Amino acid sequence: MTPTLVRHHTYAASSAPVDPGTRARDWAAIQERVLAPLHEAVFDRLEVGAGTRMLSLSCGSGLALLAAASRGARVTGVDTDPERLALARERLGSAGRAEDSGTWAEGSGRRARDTEPARRARLVEGPPSAAATTGAPPYNLLTAFHPIGCAAGDSEGLAPALAEAVPLAVRGATVVLTGWGPPERCATAPVLRVAARLAEPARPARPGGWRPALRDDLEEVAARAGLKPDGSGRVSCPFAYADVDSAVRGLLSTGLFDAAERATGRSRVEKEVAEALLPHRRPDGTVWMPNVFRYLVCVTK
């Protein structure tokens, strides 16, 4: 069977031919969890809790939503990737098609610990504007936890997404943007350079292809979106994997290697990424790469 063409959920479009179910599962099981320290640092700083009404842009398979809901927040996640949203529903225990009804999902709650987060979660397939609420207070926290600053076009795509989301929030709502830290602070950067080298480097960068993070990526997006910066921070997010194979699968699930796969084929990308990971392999076979990510706290005007 010919693999389905799937548009990866990052703010930059991507169209590498992959099996969408496999990619989504690799993201949820291997890659998404490496960003958990970033989620927790932001939620700690903002004291996310029962009074929080959060809209998460490009929510993926819902790990950040689960963390916020577990703190008592009401959360809505919006994404264009149906495979990842399906995994988010499983993770949150959401039932039915809350994305169509515009109401909060009550959830099946087969286990007691799943019930409460599910009651506070709503998942929406589509653009940010599709997350408009009916019969519920507007959002007071908007998050963009898929880090920008490492894929060509991702910062350009985030500003329009924010333009759709901001009208759904109260005036003075908090907005959190996240991005990769300086390349010299990210051990994964040399591995990601494989993507740039293989993806026809003589041509202009294509959407979704890797490029080095820039110092003011987040600030420039905030300025274009009309947001007022109100603080920032850096968080250590080591990329830890059980073995090289898991690391390759996790990294390729990000979409940063899509252009390289189009140019050279998946097997070559897998081989070269595995070779680039060897310096980060520990004696027990695990892979460990320390990285730093940034977040910028803003408020709507």
From TrEMBL:
Q: Which GO terms describe its molecular function?
A: methyltransferase activity
Q: Which UniProt keywords apply?
A: Methyltransferase, Transferase
- Identify the domain of life: Bacteria
Q: To which species is this protein native?
A: Streptomyces halstedii
Q: Where is the composition biased (Basic and acidic residues)?
A: 90-100, 108-123
**Listed Low complexity bias regions:** 126-135
- Is-annotated flag, keyword Transferase? yes
* Name of this protein: Methyltransferase domain-containing protein
Methyltransferase type domain residues are 55-96
Q: Where is this region: Disordered?
A: 90-135
Gene Ontology biological process terms from the UniProt entry = methylation
Please list the coiled coil stretches. none
Q: Does the keyword Transferase apply?
A: yes
**Family annotation (InterPro entries):** Methyltransf_11 (IPR013216), SAM-dependent_MTases_sf (IPR029063)
